[in-house]
Design a protein that fits this description.
Blueprint lengths: L7 E7 L7 H17 L3 E4 L6 H10 L1 E4 L11 E3 L6 H9 L4 E3 L3 H15 L3 E5 L5 H7 L6 E4 L2 H5 L9 E5 L5 H14 L13 H14 L4 E5 L5 H13 L3 E4 L15 E6 L5 H11 L3 E7 L13 H13 L1
Parallel strand pairs: 1-11, 1-12, 2-3, 2-4, 4-5, 6-7, 6-8, 9-10, 9-11
Helix pairs in contact: 8-9
Length: about 325
């Protein structure tokens, strides 16, 4: 409980943009529409997005989350997560004749296609990303001939390639823009003939949120990032705050707020990873109100109006239902 001495004025600054991106909104809508159109249960391979609150909300509506396809019964409506899947997973679903709805983010699919194009031209593909991340595993399993994975510039120096003049690179979509630029620079320095997209494969939402976090961090005493510990883009936002020199914490929700972090703090910045719903941000603002008189300010930032189309499996079924009604 706060004491009168600890109660203070708190200015809260909100990053813009923050929270859900178009790919996440699309993935969640896919699950919700599938539940309405096919009825529960529907089966989702891996977390649809990296946020336990989103997952639990969908689970309560009838979504069943599994790690592998063998956990899905024959005939079970199957949804691939926004992170994408390897070709072998898709092939297994086809062999079992599972009705599949693919919620892979279109920007992730774009990376898959770029890698496949390079491989078709005889280039060895280098993937910049984090080992074990679902998006990386999916991309690795989509490019014929395999890929070499690098995470940082030091990894580039350890690469062994057969033909340094026939190389290409692609990137995980949720990386740090600055780190990725450093890796690309290292790749081009060591392999001058390598081809790739600069930092364009890092999605617009990731870049916008990272820039908003930079703009926010220089104005506050403390940065709070709402997001999951296993969310790559959320971790990058926290790192940006730390690099700026201010205390920065990644928290799943308001319950993780530590009052000790607020000691001597008068300005708090809040942002959220691309998988974090806005309701968690608002709950954190209310929680901060327990420690001071709060004033909330929203910063200016990039406006996002991108909307991705839903899979035809959902839109056609909905159209048929409306026509027969």
């Amino acid at each position: 409980m706060t004491t009168p001495e600890s109660f203070r004025d708190l200015d809260i600054y909100l990053a813009r943009p923050r929270g859900f991106c178009a790919g996440v909104e699309r993935a969640i809508e896919i699950v919700e529409r599938a539940l309405k159109q096919y009825g529960p249960p529907v089966y989702v391979r891996h977390e649809i997005v990296h946020n336990k609150h989103v997952v639990e909300s969908l689970r309560a509506k009838g979504a069943v989350f599994v790690e592998e396809l063998h956990q899905i019964p024959d005939g079970g409506v199957t949804i691939f997560s926004a992170h994408g899947v390897a070709e072998a997973v898709e092939g297994e679903a086809k062999r079992r004749d599972l009705p599949v709805i693919d919620a892979t983010c279109p920007l992730v699919s774009k990376v898959h296609k770029e890698g496949q194009t390079h491989a078709a031209k005889g280039r060895l593909v280098i993937l910049i990303g984090h080992a074990g991340h679902p998006e990386v595993e999916g991309t690795q399993g989509r490019i014929p001939g395999g890929v070499l994975l690098v995470t940082n510039a030091d990894d580039v120096n350890r690469l062994e390639v057969h033909d340094p003049e026939r190389l290409a690179y692609v990137t995980q979509t949720t990386l740090s823009v600055d780190e990725t630029r450093d890796v690309i620079t290292a790749l081009k320095r060591r392999f001058p003939k390598i081809v790739g997209p600069n930092v364009k494969d890092i999605c617009y939402a990731t870049q916008n949120r990272q820039q908003a976090a930079r703009d926010l961090a220089v104005q506050v005493d403390l940065l709070l990032v709402v997001g999951a510990k296993n969310s790559s883009n959320s971790n990058r936002l926290r790192e940006i705050g730390t690099e700026t020199g201010i205390p920065s914490y990644l928290i799943a929700d308001a319950s993780a707020l530590d009052s000790a972090w607020l000691e001597g703090v008068r300005t708090v910045g809040i942002t959220a990873g691309a998988s974090a719903p806005e309701e968690l941000v608002q709950a954190l603002i209310r929680r901060l109100g327990d420690f001071g008189r709060t004033r909330v300010h929203e910063l200016n930032g990039a406006a996002e109006n991108i909307v991705f189309k839903l899979p035809a499996a959902l839109t056609k079924k909905a159209a048929r239902a409306a026509h027969s009604a």
